[in-house]
Amino acid sequence: MEVPKLQIGNLVADVPIVQGGMGVRVSLASLASAVANEGGIGTISSIGLGDIEASKTEYERISREALIREIRKAKTMTKGLLAVNFMGVLSNVDDLVITSVKEGIQIIVFGAGLPTRLPVLVPDPNVNLVPIVSSARVAELILRTWDKRYGRTADALILEGPLAGGHLGFSEEQLTHPEDYALEILLPEVLEAIRPYEDRYGKKIPVITGGGIYDGKDIARMLSMGASGVQMGTRFVCTEECDVSREFKQAYLDAKKEDIVIIKSPVGMPGRAIWNPFLKDLAEKGKLKINCPFRCLTACKVDRANFCIALALVNSYFGDVNHGLIFCGQNAYRIQEIVTVKDLMDELIFELKAA
Ligand SMILES: Cc1cc2nc3c(=O)[nH]c(=O)nc-3n(C[C@H](O)[C@H](O)[C@H](O)COP(=O)(O)O)c2cc1C
């Protein structure tokens, strides 16, 4: 079997694998460039790059400069395709989007919040806009709004199912029966919802599915159902090139299936993480001390939040996992070793061809 390429706008990836953006420094230049060098799309996360103890202006400046550094560094490491991931709930998201475009990024991936104004921030039609959605209803809502207001449509969509890592676009109640929202159910609905917009704009809107995709067989199944590619996060965490601490990766290797839990995030969405001393402490105390000089997330209600998610994720990044949150996908417990990105991509492509 020929491995199909993934086309987004006028960009073509040799391999239909997107490494998902992973916030608070898990996917930076090192991981993203390694994936791009193997023919996939590497995604730098713009989230949590600032100093959380800084003042508002300082925080914005530090985040912007850190993002510029990561983009420039990645570009020195690869000639392949790079994307940047954004969360709509970030208070400085507009600045980070504009900064990325100025730095020449041509794929803008936007989740955790409706990207209603994204085409205004990025008027250049050569920059590809890729919203993350969890249902056909939201996909249709975004495309309808963009069509009416801006005469523009998405250049691709990422459809993220309930088995993904990080924040999830499903309610806690929906996550108790994820099989009802399996990608196999959601994908045909999304493909149907976007068809009128593909017809109107005379172009294909590729749908990239993510959440629980573990091996080449999973990729083959998604492609056979009409996906144009897949987005994977969890498997890329356990690579040499992944930017996060060794302790974070080790927590994946040590995790058992029953350690993978759903938590309530101060962002207002559920998230998936590994049960550890930090979550145990939080469960026992009910609330941890928060010092928030600058509200990095518009959706975080500081007075009601039971912990600072930015601090918890930064701790994990630096290796203090006992005081940190470890986001992961549902399949994290299946990973047995840390490999190079090249070995992982070769394995996935080998399995995809065999399937
Ligand atoms: C540690 C971790 C952090 C993540 N952070 C983000 C994020 O900041 N923004 C985002 O859109 N998705 C985030 N995700 C989701 C991934 O980009 C990806 O879509 C998802 O993990 C795919 O599912 P998989 O992990 O089962 O492969 C994160 C996932 C993980 C595992």
Strand fraction band? 15-25%
Largest sheet: 8 strands, parallel
CATH first level of the largest domain: which class?
Alpha Beta
Distinct ligand kinds: flavin mononucleotide
Integer-rounded radius of gyration: 19 Å
Amino-to-carboxy terminus distance: 8 Å
| CATH fold topology of the largest domain | TIM Barrel
Descriptive account of the structure:
Strand 10, helix 8 (216-224) and strand 11 (229-232) form a beta-alpha-beta unit. This protein has two domains: 6-243 and 335-354, TIM Barrel, CATH 3.20.20; 247-323, no CATH class. The longest helix has 22 residues, at 56-77. It has 13 helices and 13 strands. Helices cover 39% and strands 16% of the residues. The chain has helices at 29-37, 56-77, 93-102, 118-121, 136-150, 172-175, 183-201, 216-224, 234-237, 246-254, 277-285, 309-318, 341-354; strands at residues 6-8, 11-13, 17-19, 41-45, 81-87, 107-111, 128-133, 157-160, 166-167, 207-210, 229-232, 260-264, 270-274. The chain is of the alpha/beta class and 355 residues long. The strands form three sheets. An eight-stranded parallel sheet has the order 3-11-10-8-7-6-5-4. Flavin mononucleotide is lined by residues 20-23, 26, 45, 47, 85, 87, 111, 132, 160, 163-166, 210-213, 231-234, 237, 327-329, 331. Flavin mononucleotide binds at residues 20-23, 26, 45, 47, 85, 87, 111, 132, 160, 163-166, 210-213, 231-234, 237, 327-329, 331.
